[in-house]
Amino acid sequence: MSTLDEIGKAVRVRRTEMGLTQDLLARLSGLSRSTVNTVENRSIANLSIAKAVALLESIGLSMNVNVNAARSSSRKNAPPSRSAMERAAATASISYGQAMTAKQLEVALLTGEAPPRIRPHLQVMLDEAPVSLLAKVVDEIHAEKSISRAQVWSQMRKLAHELQCYRLLWQ
Question: How far is Cα of residue 168 from the mean position of the Cα atoms in its chain?
Answer without folding.
Answer: 13
